[in-house]
Amino acid sequence: MRHPTRLGGDTLVHRLQQMLADRGLDQTPAGPIDDEPRPDEPGHPAYHRARRAEWALARWQTATPYRYQQATATHPQITAWADRAIDDPKKAGFLLMTGPFGTGKTHQAYGALRRIADAGPDRYEVIATTAPDMYALLRPGGSDRGAEYELKRLMQVPLLLIDDLGTEKISEFTEEATYRLLNERYNECRPLIITSNLPPSDPTGGPDLNEKLGQRITSRLSQMTTVVPMGGNDRRRPASGGAA
Ligand SMILES: Nc1ncnc2c1ncn2[C@@H]1O[C@H](COP(=O)(O)OP(=O)(O)O)[C@@H](O)[C@H]1O
Ligand SMILES: [Mg+2]
C-alpha cells in the first residue's frame, strides 16, 4: 500500500538518481538516441561532399579564363563524358571536341571541368592551357623550372585541358612532346580534354589531326577517345552575319 512517488515526489526520484550517480552508475535512459548527423552537419557524407565541391569549384575558377567563368556543359555527349569522369576518372578516356571556331568547344570544355568540380570529387587538380601556350612552356628556356618538369606536371595532373590543338606549327620537338604527353596519360588512363578545329581524320583529304600530329599520336587518340563534332553557327558573330 505504499506509493513511493506520492511520498517523496520529484525530490525522492532526484535523491535516488543522485545516489546512483554518486556510485558512478549510468543514468542515461535506455532507448534509441538520434545522434546521426544531418546532411548539413559534419560526419554526414553530403556535408563532406559539399565542402569538397566548394574547394574544387574555387580551383576551377582559378583555372578558368574570365570569358568562361559562366560556362556550363549542356551538350549531351559532353555531360555524359563528365559524368563518367566523376564516376571513375580511369574509365572516362579522352574527350575530343572538333569543329569550326565559335561553335562552343571551349565553353563546353570548361563546363565539363566545372561539372566534375561540382560533384565534389576526392581529388580535384586541373591544368587548362591552349596548345600554343603549352608548347611555349615546353620549349627550351620556356620555363624557369625546366621543360621536363613542366611536361611531368602535364602528364600527372588529374585533369588536363588542351584547347585548340592543331593550330600551332608542328615541329619534331612539338611532335615528340605531344606524343610523350598523350602516351603517358593514355597509359595511366588519366582523363584529357582536347578541342581542335581539325577532325581526327578527313577521308576527303582535307586538313586533319592525323596529318598535323602524325600517325602515332592519332592512333593513341583513336583508342580511348570520345570524339564530339560540334556544329552550328559561329556564336561570336551576330546571327544576321553582320560585322564580327
Ligand atoms: N552554351 C553557351 N551559352 C552561352 N554562351 C556560349 C555558349 N557556348 C559558347 N558561348 C560563347 O560563344 C563564344 C564562342 O564559344 P567558344 O566556346 O569560345 O567557341 P570555340 O571554342 O568553338 O571557338 C564565346 O564567347 C562563348 O562564351
Ligand atoms: Mg575555343
Please give the structural blueprint.
Blueprint: H1 4-22, H2 45-63, H3 76-87, H4 89-92, E1 94-98, H5 105-118, E2 126-130, H6 131-138, H7 147-156, E3 159-163, H8 172-187, E4 192-196, H9 209-213, H10 215-223, E5 225-229
Adenosine-5'-diphosphate binds near residues 103, 105 and 235.
GO molecular function, one term: ATP binding
Keywords: ATP-binding, Nucleotide-binding
InterPro entries: IstB_ATP-bd, P-loop_NTPase
Structural class: alpha/beta
CATH topology of the domain at 68-229: Rossmann fold
Tell me the major beta sheet: 5 strands, parallel
Global mean pLDDT: 88
Q: How far apart, in Å, are the first and last alpha carbons?
A: 101 Å
CATH top level of the domain at 68-229 is Alpha Beta
Radius of gyration: 29 Å
Give, in spatial order, the strands making up the sheet with the most strands. 2-3-4-1-5
The count of DSSP E runs of length 2 or more, i.e. the number of strands, is 5
Characterize the overall form. elongated
Poorly predicted runs: 240-244
Annotated CATH homologous superfamily of the domain at 68-229:
P-loop containing nucleotide triphosphate hydrolases
The secondary-structure element order is HHHHEHEHHEHEHHE
Q: Name the CATH architecture of the domain at 68-229.
A: 3-Layer(aba) Sandwich
The kinds of small molecule bound in this structure are: adenosine-5'-diphosphate, magnesium ion
Strand proportion, as a percent range, falls in 5-15%
| Total helical elements | 10
The portion of residues assigned to helices is 40-55%
